[in-house]
Each structure stands twice: as C-alpha cells, then as structure tokens.
Write a structure and sequence with these properties.
Layout (H helix, E strand, L loop, with lengths): L2 H25 L9 E7 L3 E4 L14 E3 L3 E8 L6 E3 L6 E4 L3 E5 L8 E3 L5 E2 L5 E2 L5 E2 L16 E4 L4 E5 L5 E7 L1 E3 L8 E4 L2 E3 L15 E3 L9 E4 L1 E3 L5 H33 L4
Antiparallel strand pairs: 1-4, 2-3, 5-20, 6-19, 7-8, 7-11, 7-15, 9-10, 12-13, 13-14, 15-18, 16-17
Helix pairs in contact: 1-2
C-alpha cells in the first residue's frame, strides 16, 4: 500500500486535533482567567532506504535516504501568558499582576486545594470569600477566609493581598489576613479540571507533594509571586486574530492531506486497471 495514503491520514488526524484546540480557544475567548492551548506537531519514524557513508581518501560521503511516514501530535501546550485586564470596580474581583495562582478548596476541611487565575470572587452568607462554584478562597496560611460582617462595615484588599477592614467609625485596620498565592515551577504541567481550575501534577512542581505547600504571600520578591489588583479581572489570553490565522492554516492543511489521499487512491486505481 502507498505510504502517502497513511501519511495523508495522519495529517488529517493531526489537523483535526489542531482544529479542536482552536475551537476550544475561540469558545473560551471571554472566559475569565482562561489560558489558550496550542498544538505542536512532530514527524514520526522515517523508513530508511539506505544508510549514509562517511568520506574516505578515495570516495566522498553520501547521505542516508529516508522516507517519512507521516505526522503526529507532539504536544498540546497551555500558554500561560497574562490575559487582558478588565476593570469592574468590584472589591472582590481580583487579578494577579504577575506569576502565581489563587488557591481554592472545595470544602471547609481544606483537605486539598486547586489553583485558578479566575478572580471573580464574592462573599457568601457566612462571610466566606468564595468563587462562582462556592469553593473557598484560601489565605497565605492555607485557611479559608471569613469576613466578620458584624464588626466590619467594608473592606478592601491591598496589593500584597492583605484584607484591610473599615469599622463603623470609618477607621481602617489591617486584619493580618493575606490572600494566598500558589506558584509552581512549571505552570504548563498543571492539569486542567474545568471550571477554571488546575490540579498540581508531579511535572508542575517536583518539590510540592501537597498543593497546600505551594501557597505563600502575594508580591513576595523571594518567591516571585505577583501582586493582587482589586477591582479588576484577568480575562482570557486568547488572541482571535492569531486563532483565525491558525484556523486557516489548519483548514488548508486538512484539505491538502485529504488531496493526498484522493491522489493516492487514483494511483491505486490505475494500478488495478493495469491487468485489464
């Protein structure tokens, strides 16, 4: 069977995967804290027709003759570049200006934690700061953050993550509660869980066995965590211009590979017709 037939099939499968990733990027163009993905291709093993020879005093060297057998998906990367900022003036809307993630826990026991860049938090009826799914925002000590609504009239959040309360007399006072920021060595090694959440994997940070060990303070020069900007949200980092350009490339690549299959089929038909 012709090698080009299988090379064309592998190309169509690769570009279909690329279109899947592009479609997901475009679908999440307005998702808070979303990070775009990209597909990187690599060629598969080549069939060697003849090996190369080294030059000597009599004859020159020759290169190997190899035929590639198609393409495969080498990686699907998550691009952790910053998204654009959107000003909302809501005090509990937070954006990380720099590296790091917010840490949230699904329950008050804080047995585990997940990371997110989506900063659209709010206060529930018990005074807890939670995300849209009711998960608890954690402080720099790995504890849930609760605002005493009977004592605190209002509050704001400083760039180092400290929650500053304002009492009934209008006096501002630091609560010494700081919003926690988790930083990993390899953000692309995080596993996407949906709901704007990431889970720590062995390839995201080799030294952190527990996700809670990653949590520290914001704007910390020792760990390199970013500062917290209150009243703003980090939007998706999807670039629609780039996505549409990549969509055109993927569409034409898919069409070209389908043409290879059509041409290979016509050649096979000619071979079959030889015995007539």
């Amino acid at each position: 069977m012709l090698r080009s037939l299988y090379s064309g099939i592998s190309g169509m499968q690769g570009f279909q995967t690329k279109l899947d990733v592009i479609g997901n990027n475009i679908a999440n163009v307005n998702t808070t804290g979303f990070k775009a993905g990209r597909v990187m291709f690599q060629d598969v093993l080549s069939q060697q027709i003849s090996g190369g020879t080294a030059p000597n005093d009599v004859t020159g060297g020759s290169n190997a003759k190899e035929i590639g057998l198609g393409v495969t998906v080498g990686a699907i990367d998550t691009i952790h570049t910053p998204g654009s900022a959107m000003t909302t003036n809501v005090p509990t809307d937070l954006r990380i200006d720099g590296d790091g993630f917010f840490a949230v826990a699904p329950n008050s026991d804080v047995e585990t934690a997940y990371l997110t860049r989506a900063g659209n938090f709010s206060i529930d009826a018990n005074g807890n700061i939670v995300n849209a799914n009711g998960m608890f925002l954690l402080d720099s000590e790995g504890e849930i953050i609760t605002i005493d609504t009977e004592e605190v009239t209002s509050f704001y959040i400083a760039q180092d993550g400290e929650i500053v309360s304002v009492n009934v007399d209008g006096v501002s006072e630091g609560t010494d509660i700081r919003i926690g920021i988790g930083k990993v060595t390899n953000p692309s090694g995080l596993e996407k869980l949906g709901g704007n959440l990431y889970r720590v994997t062995p390839n995201s940070d080799a030294e952190a066995e527990d996700p809670l060990d990653l949590i520290g303070q914001a704007n910390d020069p020792d760990t390199g965590t970013g500062s917290i900007i209150s009243g703003q949200l980090e939007m998706s980092n999807v670039d629609l211009t780039a996505e549409f350009s990549e969509m055109i490339v993927a569409q034409r690549g898919f069409q070209s590979n389908s043409r290879i299959i059509t041409t290979s089929d016509e050649i096979l038909q000619e071979i079959v017709n030889l015995k007539r």
